[in-house]
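Problem: given the chain below (90 residues), write out its structure.
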Amino acid sequence: MKLISKKRFEFSKLILVFETLLVGYVSYRVLGFVQLAIETNYTGSLPYLVTFITAVWGAYGTSISFYQSKSGKENVAKITSPINYDQDTD
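Solution.
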């Protein structure tokens, strides 16, 4: 009989996955507005869309950066834990 191990999904990963989905959706919607502007021959500018997409991707980049930093520090802590070697010295 196999034992199924339940590995908890870390909260920081959950936030990152949710934010990835949100950034993808926002980007999709903004591109939809841009497509609509092109189809209707809109000749004005779209500064609000540029600002919105820049803010969303900037926040996403910051989140990724902090997550990678946190993950790296956790992995270093795991690697540098003391190892007890029982070696005989002759």
